C-alpha cells in the first residue's frame, strides 16, 4: 500500500517521466537492506573480468600460432641435421676463408600489398601447452620464373658482375630447391661456368640466409605499403635492398652458421626466426 502511494506521488509530480513501479519496488528493497546511496554501483568491465579469470585462475594465454613451412618427417629432420654437420665441417663453422666464395641466392614474390600481421591466428593456450604451429600456405600466383629466364638473364648478370675483377674467381652458389634452381638446364649452365652448386635440404627456409634474414628484413620495410603497379613494387624493393648497410650482410652469414648449430641442437625441428 505504501509503495503504491509513493508511486502515485511521483506520478503527480513527474508525470510520464516518473520511474516505473517495478523500479520503485527495487529501490525500496535496496533501502531496506541498508543502502544509503542513490547513485548506481560501478559497472564491472566484463572484458577485464574475463581476462582476469583466463589469466589468473585458468592460467591461459593467447598466443599467435607459429608458422612453419612444412610438417617434417623424421627423415627430413635427419637430412637437415646431416647437412648442417657437413656444411659446418666444410667451412669450419664459418671461420674458413672459403666462406667468401659463397654466393647465396633465392626467390621472393613481391606483392602490391602485404598484410601487416598475423594476429588473426592467435589462439588461447593453457599453461604447459606448446605454442601452436600452422603450416604456411603459399599464395597463388599467375606466373612462374622458368629455368630459361634464370640461366639466360639472372645468373649470367650475377656471375659477370662477380668476375669483373677476377675472371677465375671461385664461386660456390647456394640456393633453395625451387624447380628453376634444380632444373637440368640450370645445372648444366653452372657446370659450364665452373660454378659449384651447394646442395640444400628440402623444406628448410630456416637454413637459407635469404629466407631467414635478407628477405625478412626487406619485407618488414615493405609490409603495410600499397603499390599501384608492379614497377612501383619492384622499385620499392630495390630501394629497400640499398637501404641495408654493409654490416647487415656480414651479419647474415654469421647468423647462417649459428642457425646450422641451432638446427643440430633441435634435431632438425623448425625454430623461431632470429
From TrEMBL:
Q: Which domain of life is it from?
A: Eukaryota
Which terms in the Gene Ontology molecular function aspect does this entry carry?
nucleic acid binding
- Name-wise, this protein is Transposase
The organism that produces this protein has a lineage beginning with: Eukaryota, Metazoa, Ecdysozoa, Arthropoda, Hexapoda
For this protein, the record's InterPro entries field holds: RNaseH_sf, Transposase-MT_Hybrid
Q: Give the originating organism.
A: Acanthoscelides obtectus
Amino acid at each position: 500500500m505504501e509503495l503504491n502511494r509513493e508511486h502515485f506521488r511521483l506520478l503527480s509530480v513527474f508525470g510520464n517521466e516518473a520511474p516505473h513501479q517495478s523500479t520503485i519496488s527495487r529501490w525500496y528493497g535496496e533501502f531496506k537492506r541498508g543502502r544509503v546511496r542513490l547513485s548506481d554501483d560501478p559497472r564491472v568491465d566484463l572484458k577485464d573480468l574475463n581476462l582476469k579469470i583466463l589469466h589468473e585462475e585458468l592460467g591461459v594465454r593467447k598466443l599467435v600460432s607459429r608458422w612453419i613451412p612444412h610438417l617434417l618427417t623424421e627423415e627430413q629432420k635427419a637430412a637437415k641435421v646431416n647437412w648442417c654437420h657437413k656444411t659446418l665441417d666444410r667451412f669450419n663453422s664459418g671461420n674458413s676463408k672459403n666462406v667468401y666464395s659463397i654466393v647465396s641466392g633465392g626467390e621472393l614474390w613481391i606483392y602490391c600489398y602485404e598484410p601487416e600481421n598475423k594476429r588473426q591466428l592467435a589462439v588461447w593456450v593453457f599453461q604447459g601447452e606448446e605454442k601452436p604451429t600452422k603450416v604456411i600456405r603459399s599464395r597463388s600466383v599467375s606466373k612462374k620464373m622458368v629455368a630459361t629466364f634464370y640461366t639466360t638473364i639472372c645468373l649470367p648478370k650475377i656471375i659477370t658482375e662477380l668476375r669483373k675483377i677476377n675472371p677465375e674467381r671461385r664461386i660456390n652458389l647456394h640456393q633453395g630447391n625451387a624447380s628453376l634452381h634444380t632444373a637440368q638446364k640450370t645445372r648444366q649452365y653452372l657446370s659450364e661456368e665452373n660454378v659449384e652448386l651447394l646442395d640444400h635440404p628440402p623444406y628448410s627456409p630456416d637454413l637459407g640466409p635469404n629466407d631467414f634474414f635478407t628477405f625478412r628484413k626487406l619485407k618488414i620495410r615493405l609490409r603495410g605499403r600499397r603499390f599501384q603497379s608492379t614497377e612501383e613494387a619492384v622499385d620499392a624493393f630495390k630501394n629497400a635492398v640499398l637501404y641495408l648497410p654493409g654490416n647487415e650482410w656480414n651479419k647474415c652469414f654469421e647468423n647462417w652458421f649459428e642457425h646450422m648449430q641451432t638446427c643440430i641442437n633441435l634435431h632438425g625441428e623448425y625454430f623461431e626466426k632470429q
